[in-house]
Structures are given as C-alpha cells and as structure tokens.
Amino acid sequence: MIRAALAWAVPGAMLTALSACGGRYAPVSDTPIRLGQAYSVRGTTYVPAADPTYDMLGYASWYGSESGKRTANGERFRARAITGAHTTLPLPSYVEVTSLTTGRTILLRVNDRGPFARGRIIDLSRGAATLLGIAAQGQAAVRVRVVEPPERDRERLRAGKPAAARPDASPATIANLRAQLDAGRRALGLRD
Q1: Lowest mean pLDDT among 21-25, 41-45, 50-54, 126-130
Q2: Which residues neighbour 159 within 8 Å (Cβ) at sequence distance 6 or greater?
Q3: How many helices (H) and strands (E) does the chain have?
Q4: Neighbours of 180 (CB within 10 A)
Q5: Could you tell me the domains of the chain?
Q6: pLDDT tens, residue by residue, 139-175
Q7: C-alpha atoms less than 13 angstroms from C-alpha of 47 in its C-beta half-sphere
Q8: CB-based contact 19:70 (threshold 8 Å)
Q9: Going by DSSP bridges, is the β-strand pair 120-125/83-85 parallel, antiparallel, or unpaired?
Q10: What is the C-alpha to C-alpha distance for residues 127 and 157, in angstroms, rounded to an integer?
C-alpha cells in the first residue's frame, strides 16, 4: 500500500540539526518522500497522505516574499521557481495546475505546506503564478491534479526551471470545470 510505504516523519529536532549543518540548504531531491504527522493550524487539523487520484477544483493564491527561507521539505524557497504548497500531499509531489481564468496548464513541484486560508487548495510560487498568467490576481480558480511526470520534467523543476509546456485547456473544458466549481460552491452555500 502506498500510504504505508511512504508514511514516515523526521523528528523536528533532527530536521533542525540537519538543516543547521554549515548553514547551507540541502540539495533539491525527490527522495526521501515525506508525509509527516497530522498537524493543526488555526484550529484545523491536516493529515498528510499519498493520494495518486487527487483531482480538485478550488482556488490558488501565490507567495513570493519568502524567498530564501526554508520550505517544509527543507529546501530553500525560490520565488521564481515553479513550486507550490499543499496541506496534505507528500513532499515532494508533482501536480498539474490549470487556471480556470487563462486556460493555461503547468506542471509544478509541491515542496511546502499551505495554504492555510479557507477555500484555497494550493499556494503557488510567484514563478508558477506568472506562468499561469494569474500573478496580477491575489487568487484564482484552478484545477489541481496529481501526476507522475517524466524524469526530464522532474529534473527541470528541481533546478527551478519550468517543465515542458503543456497544452492549454480548451474553452469548453474551462467552461465545464468552472460550472463544476460553481455548482460545488453553491452546494456549500458559498458566494463568489
């Protein structure tokens, strides 16, 4: 079972000790994959888990002023890299993000935890938000789904560069996804 094989946590004290070695950040790597223990932020509990079928509609926000700080994965945050933060997916994970505003689709590497704001399903680096064409907005409607990209795309993303271009979503697909998102929000009694 994937969850059992991937579920492990490095104690916080050990992470701190490892990160303090020489004041340098660890090289970007896809191993080990980290899930970690359940954690709570502002009264909400998050339970990290592997979910290869993750496919969600919601809202993305972006962040960029944290450049140089450490991500939850222990890597140095680079605002121009094509990365993101998710509350529960394994670190790292690869997801395909489609903007329901621009129709652009990108591949990004999840290496941090967040967002911790209601209604948001992913935080994007400034580089990812720029590629999606949503950097001028504070938040935007998106589709996020877990993918297993080829090693060449993984290498590029680990280096902070964009993966190979993905086709934009068609207007019909965007309209369908937008209708699904709106119907879900109405069912929950949420307004735009």
Answers
A1: 21-25
A2: 28
A3: 5, 8
A4: 13
A5: 2-187 (2.40.40.10)
A6: 999 999 999 999 999 999 999 999 999 999 999 999 9
A7: 2
A8: yes
A9: antiparallel
A10: 11
